[in-house]
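Class prep. Sample record?

___
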Amino acid sequence: MNLRRIALAAVLIAAVSCQQTSQTNDPVLTRDGIEVSRSYGGIHNPYPTVVPDAPAAPKGYEVCYISHYGRHGSRFIHLESQYSSIYNTLKDAHDEGLLSEEGEGVYERFMQVYPDLKGRSGELTPLGQVQHRQIAHRMVKNYPSLFGKSRKIQVRTTNLERTMLSMNAFLNEVKVMKPATEMEIDGSRTEMNYLNAHSWDNPYMNNEDMTWRSRDGEWSAPFTEFVKSRIDIRGFASRVFNDVDKADAQFDLYEFERQMFFFSLHLPGCPVPQVGFFDLFNEAELIELGKIEPAEFYYMKGLYPSPKARAAILSESLLHDFLDKTEQDLADGVSVRLRFGHDGCMVALFALMECPGWDQVENDIEKIWGLWNTEEIPMGANIQMVFYRPKAAKDNDGLIFTYLLNEKPMALPLDEVTTGFYSWNDFQAKYRPMADEAKKVLDEAI
């Protein structure tokens, strides 16, 4: 769908009911009675409901611009095959009498919610819309001078439904709070080369890149074997099946446990009865299962030392966009630039930028296991570069900014000019050569 320069009225569809999924205040417990932690969930966690207050403007400065990149909000599970593989395994085992008494309970609970989940993989949930309305509400409340009459914001989104609906929810809230704000919106494929630098819309993307970021990548098979050595697959299966040997001969028990884990993580964000499945796992199992995707993310998006691991380098297009559009927007009088995209794009950007916690270079599976903390990239995760200029300045000399991840200050490998704030000149001096060098490497590889 092409939204190039369409009028705001055409994109702001009738408001969808955004009531959160019905939840209780009772803690969710593991099989061994331990409260389920966000540390297991990584990128699948919902956006935090409590965030810190925005940093105050340094003395003598006033806010002048925000450059943003936001992940879509909570969604249904990523791939339809994840739903269907669980369904097929439980249905076949039930029909063949292979389920234990506990397994029959799992089957009944799953079948209670599956009809309302089937066919919705990857779609934004009502909770995902709520998250973006709340993020927008805080942004306008924290920086009201950047919105309203005579204020212009530029909005760009990848052309997937979940990012478009996230954008829509965000902009609806802005219009409620500051209806006079001018908006220019674009969801064209021509914007995808930097909003999702790991898509085919990036002209530097090639078949080897796509293979590396899949289960066909050369890292995947040894990593899967390592994971299997860390997880008691048969122990988990014994809770669900009454004959583990027969189940093992018929089903991929590792894949079943893995997908039940991901299903359990996603269910709280979906508008269905919260029948719960964490009682299938003990805490030790959840800790190990929670390390799988962060490690996969490192292989696919991080600085893994292989010429085939190019995700961070491909992110030069997004880094260039932050660099170039900041200068352009400040010159053109744009007060806010909003971008809506995806989690992998954020972590690859942090790797390219050598941000603390994302800058490791490692090839040892044992050390990659637990290397990254993707809890920092929940559903709705966002970067906000909030810029300030000296009040007495006649132009943009002396610009400083704070770099917020999920509305909290994030450290950059730069010297602070004052606590939590960096010089825009220093940012350009470090990152423009880095972005240019990455683009040169890509050019030379064609």
